[in-house]
Amino acid sequence: MTDSLPMPITAPLTNAQRTQLINLVRRAAKAEILPRFRQLGSHQIDMKTGPQDLVTEADKAAEAMITRGIQIMFPHALIVGEEHASVNPEIIDQIAEAELCFTIDPVDGTWNYAHGLAVFGVMVSILRFGQPVFGLLYDPILNDFIIADTETDAELVLPRRIRRTLSTSAGGPVEELMGFFPLDLIPADKQQQFAATMPRFARTGMLRCACHEMRMVAQGQMDFVLFAKLTPWDQPAGVVAIRRAGGHVAMLDGSDYRGDVKSGYLLAACNAETWGRVRDVFDFLIDPPAPETTQPPEKNAFPGEIAVDSDA
């Protein structure tokens, strides 16, 4: 038992189950994602919240196939897929109480995928009572993946089962750091101030794909990534991978990250010291707490004097 959760939080998969899950994701990519890549017609691409937020037939078909496979393997698990949750958002409220929850991002980087850019991936994570404990970040183009859980190091697994243990970068002063952050998702009243921070870093950008952004941090190729839009399918897998590669991940206000959090800023960095330096650059994003309101003194009362009800 823990102080705040019903039971200890441990990695939930056996080696055989990990292999089954990896093979399931690979089959879904081979059957539903890759055949449609650069073959989509306009009738196979829809907008969700706007022209930057797309969904394709590949997203829906891959999610359905992965969901079916997980249901067979874990019939009592809560499964939260991006496309299902987009039309049934209330399912996200069940994550905090779920002993075993799988989240699925069937095509992360859908905008890239829909526009023929080969920067997209498939992500599957496992949450226990909202805590991320397993992450799989798969690249269908190169057929490799990063995998990690709370008990093993993060690994990059290449074709022919070549495995490499991952380590984040050494970090350093702000002017030497390279990172990802989403200017277009920052509130409009803070975008100008946010944009002014870009020259302070050695290199900044955005891939429009959380899967590859977090893969690059976990592999030590970039130093940090900041998220301004949080979903249970975009960040948890990468959070586990970066942590198990030696990185530090927390909400920008310093609070712990949970996979069911819906708002705020998430910062993942190569180590705690670098996380602190980057956090200091972006501290203006954190709204100060509202001042406490004080009740006015009772009528006819003076400092040190107790008001007396005249009707008493």
Distance between the termini: 54 Å
What's the Cα radius of gyration? 22 Å
Question: Overall pLDDT, averaged?
Answer: 91
Task: Give the topology string: H per helix, E per strand.
Answer: HEEHEHEHEEEEEEHEHEHEEH
Strand order of the largest sheet: 3-4-5-6-7-8-9
What is the number of helices? Answer: 8
Overall SS class: alpha+beta
Q: Please provide the count of β strands.
A: 14
What overall form do the CA principal axes indicate? globular
Helical residues, percent: 25-40%
Low-pLDDT ranges: 301-312
Give a structural overview:
It is a single chain. The protein is α+β, with helices and mostly antiparallel strands and 312 residues long. It has eight helices and 14 strands. It has helices at residues 15-33, 57-73, 82-87, 110-114, 188-195, 210-218, 236-244, 272-281; strands spanning 45-50, 53-56, 78-81, 101-108, 121-128, 131-139, 144-149, 152-158, 162-165, 178-180, 203-205, 224-227, 248-251, 266-269. The strands form three sheets. It has a seven-stranded mixed beta sheet with strand order 3-4-5-6-7-8-9, sandwiched between helices. Strands 11-10-12-14-13 form a five-stranded mixed beta sheet, sandwiched between helices. A two-stranded antiparallel ribbon has the order 1-2. Helix 1 runs antiparallel to helix 2 (57-73) and helix 6 runs parallel beside helix 7 (236-244). Residues 301-312 have low confidence and may be disordered.
Give a short overview:
The chain has 312 residues and is an alpha+beta fold.
Provide keyphrases for this structure.
single chain; 312 residues; alpha+beta; 7-stranded mixed sheet; 5-stranded mixed sheet; 24% strand; globular
